[in-house]
Amino acid sequence: MSTVDRVQHEVMETLLRGDLAPGAWLRQDELAQRLGVSKIPVREALQRLAALGLLRFETNRGARVPRLTVADAEENYALRRAIEPRLLERAIDRATIVDHAEADQALSDPDPSSAATNWRFHRALYRAAAWERGLAMVEILHVAVAPYVVLYTADLGGAVDSDHEHHALLDACRRRDTTAALELLDQHLAHAARAAIAFLDGRAPSTSSSGGAGNDT
Questions:
Q1: In this prediction, what percent of the chain has a pLDDT beyond 90?
Q2: Which of 8, 56, 81, 153 could form a disulfide with 159 if both were Cys (CB 3.0 to 4.6 A apart)?
């Protein structure tokens, strides 16, 4: 892994953990000092992340975390709903007990509704698809959607529903029930998207504990 790759990975992990709030600035000097590298690879890594839509560059000011918008939420969830079912469908019959155990371990995390834990869970279910490019694309989407996960699970009360849906999805995967798993995944993503978009658009979000809300933010 090159220095630029390492910096990019570290910043993506920081974004996934939610350590930087929407609108927060990334200071190149501070980041270079913390990682023990020069500013040159830091700037290149930040430019890469901006090209992926994970950061925004402003002239003479630097890079910042994008603010939450309806347009970004719609795009991120639309792309997830287009790509993730393909990965799950391909992976479900190839998944091993180790993959399922890793997904189960993510659900046992002290903070199972966090964006980082959410990504660990979904990655475990998709990895057996053996589509490295597809998995890398989905990782980028999970980083992009991380603040919307926090919005949905913490601020809009979707954490309990999300956890229930994750358990149901894992159960369907263990049973190799592709039809049920794909339906659960789609509902999972759709409900989280609707709740976040409704809130950002100024409408009342529709989370419900009757199996509707998806955690998969």
A1: 85
A2: 153
